[in-house]
Amino acid sequence: KLGSALHQAVQKLLRSAVVDEKAVKELVKDLQRALLQADVNVHLVMDLTKRIEERSLKEAVAPGISRREYVVKVVYEELTSILGQKVVPLKFTPGKSNIYLVVGIQGSGKTTNIVKLGRLLKKEGHSIGVVAADTFRPGAYDQLKQLADRAEIPCFGDSKEKDSIKAAKKGVKHYQSQKTEVILVDTAGRHKDEKGLIREMQQIAKAIKPDEIILVVDGTLGQQASTQAEAFNAATPIGSIIVTKLDGSARGGGALSAVAATGAPIKYIGTGEKTKDLEKFQPTKFVGQLLG
Amino acid sequence: KEISEKNLDEAFSDLQMALLANDVAYEAAERINHRVKETLEGVQIGRLQSKKDAIREALYDAILDALTPDSPVNLFELLEQRKKANEPLIIMFLGVNGTGKTTTIAKITHMLQKRGYTVVLACADTFRAGSAEQIQIHADRLKVRVLSRPYGSDPASVAFDAINHARARGVNVVLIDTAGRMQTDKNLMAELQKIHRVAEPDLVVFVGDALAGNDAIEQAKTFNEKIGIDAAVLTKVDADAKGGAALSIAIATGKPIIFVGVGQKYSDIESFNPEWFTEKIAP
Ligand SMILES: Nc1nc2c(ncn2[C@@H]2O[C@H](COP(=O)(O)OP(=O)(O)OP(=O)(O)O)[C@@H](O)[C@H]2O)c(=O)[nH]1
Ligand SMILES: Nc1nc2c(ncn2[C@@H]2O[C@H](COP(=O)(O)OP(=O)(O)OP(=O)(O)O)[C@@H](O)[C@H]2O)c(=O)[nH]1
Ligand SMILES: [Mg+2]
Ligand SMILES: [Mg+2]
Fold first, then answer.
1. Cβ B102 vs Cβ B135: under 8 Å
2. Does the beta-carbon distance from B133 to A253 stay under 8 Å?
3. pLDDT in tens, A14-67
4. Residues A233-270: pLDDT tens digits?
5. I need a surface site. Which of A132, A148, B10, B58 has the fewest CB within 10 A?
6. Residue among B130, B137, B212 minimizing CB distance to A221
7. Which atom number of ligand 2 is nearest to the Cα of residue A191?
8. Ligand 2 mean position to B125 CA, how many Å?
C-alpha cells in the first residue's frame, strides 16, 4: 500500500545510475503521488517533499556513504520525525485506576477497539473495566456489553441512562471502588462542527479527569483528518491515537496527518473486526517497511 | 494563441492540488483533468490569466457533468411502479464498516413513511455485536416491523424472510441492512453476492462516508464490480466534508448519488444536489 509505493519509488532511485538533481526530483514526484494517494494531508506532503528534496540535494553527504544512501536516510528521518522513533506505550501508572477516555468521529471504531484494547491489556495482566458512556446511539450499550462479554471483560452501563456525563462518572466511580487498574470509557461519535457534542466531550473529561484521552481515527479518513484532529485536540488534549480499519485498502495517511497536527503518537492499529485484531504501532517498523 | 499541452500542464498542477485538498481521490482528479485537457486542447484562448479562467470554467463543467447522472434513479417513480404492480420495492444497502448504512435505512424509512408508503426492514447483519438491537430500536421508534434472526444465522435467509413478509402483507418497501465489510475481503464479498442472489433487489445502494479520502474510489469501484450498485448515498456530509468523495464515487462507478446524510436525526437526509457539490469541490 503506502509501503509498497514508497518502496518502489526508493528502489527506482537506488537503481538509477547517477543520483543527480533529475533523479531526486523524480523520486520526490513519486513520493508525492504515493503520499497523496495514501491520504496524507496535501500541505504536509508538499512541505515534507520540499524538505526531502532540499536536504537530498544541498546537504553534504557524510564520508563513507553514497548520495543515494543519504537520500534514503533523509526520507527515513523526515517520516520518523512525524511518526516518532519508538513504540510509545499507553500512559499507565501502576497501583491506581488509570482512566482512558476514548473519543472520535461517528463510526471510526471506538466501541469495537475499546474491547480490543481491553483484551490486550488484560493479557498483559491488568484488571480491566469498560464504561458505556454513549447514551445516544441506539444499541450502543448492547454492542459494548456483547463485545465485552465475549472478551470476558466487565462492562458497566445502563441502556436507559440519557446523561452521558452521569454515565461516565458512575462507571469510573464503580471501577475505582473496585481498584480496577484500567478503565476504558466509550463515548458517542462526534465531529468538530457539532459544537454541543464537542462541549459534552469537554464536560465528560472535566468530570472523570482521564489519565489519557485516546482519539480513534478511521484509516479511510482523507483530507479532513488534520482539521478534525486539531479541533478534538483543542477541545480536549489528545494523548494518543488508534488508527482503525487498516485491514482494508486504506493506507492510513490521514492518521499520519492527525499525528502531525496534534503531536499525539499512534499507539495501536486496528486490523480487523475481531477482538484480537489490534496491534501495537511500531513507527520504525512502519517506516522501515515503507523504505524496504 | 493556442493552449499547448505544456501550458495546460503548468496551470493544471495548482487546480489538481485544490481538488486533492477537497478530498477528490488522486485517480479521480487525474481523470477529470484529462477530460478537461481533451476539451481545451487546440482551443484558442488569449493571455495566460484568461487561460487559467478557461481551465477553471472547463473544470467546473467537467465536475458538474460527472456528478449529473446520465441515467438518474428516480426512487419515487420506482415506488409507484412497484406499488401498481402490487410488488414490494426491494432495496439492499451495502458498504464498508461504519459508513452509516443502518442509520441511513432509518432515515429513508422515515422519508418513505411521510410519503405514505409502508416499510419493512431486514436485519441481514447477523454478525456485528448489537446490530439487531440497534435496528430494532429504530424500528420501534419508526413503528415498522424488522425481521431478524439470531447472531450467526445466514444473512440471505433474513432478506428472504422480509421479502416474503412484504409480499404476504402487501408492504410497499423492503430495506435490507447488511453488515459492513472491507471490499477486499473475498469471503465477505462472496457472502454479499449470496444475499444479492437470494434477495434479487430492485436497487442496490452503496453507502459511502464523505470523510473517506482515496479509499472512496476503491470501495465504490469494487462493490460495483463484485455486486453491481445502482445508486449511492453519501453520509456525514455535515462533518465539514469537502465533497470530493462524491466525485470519486461518481467517476469510479458512473452511478448516481441519490441522497446525502447531513446528521444523525431521521430528518437529516437530503436529495443529492450536483450544483451544490460542484461549487464545493471546484477550485
Ligand atoms: N475491518 C475492520 N472493521 C473495524 C475495525 N474497527 C472497527 N471496525 C468496524 O467498524 C464499524 C464501526 O465500529 P464501531 O466500534 O461501532 O465504531 P464507533 O466509533 O463506536 O461508532 P459510533 O459509536 O457510532 O461513533 C463496526 O462494523 C466495526 O466492526 C477494524 O480495525 N477493521
Ligand atoms: N454526523 C453524522 N453522523 C452520521 C451520519 N450517518 C450516520 N452517522 C453516524 O455514524 C455512526 C455509524 O452509523 P451506522 O448506521 O451504525 O453505520 P453502519 O454503516 O451501519 O455501520 P456497520 O453496520 O458497523 O458497518 C452512527 O453514530 C451514526 O449516527 C450523518 O450523515 N452525519
Ligand atoms: Mg460506538
Ligand atoms: Mg450497520
1. yes
2. no
3. 776 566 788 888 888 888 888 888 888 999 999 988 998 888 887 766 677 777
4. 999 999 999 999 999 998 888 888 888 899 999 999 99
5. B10
6. B212
7. 1
8. 14
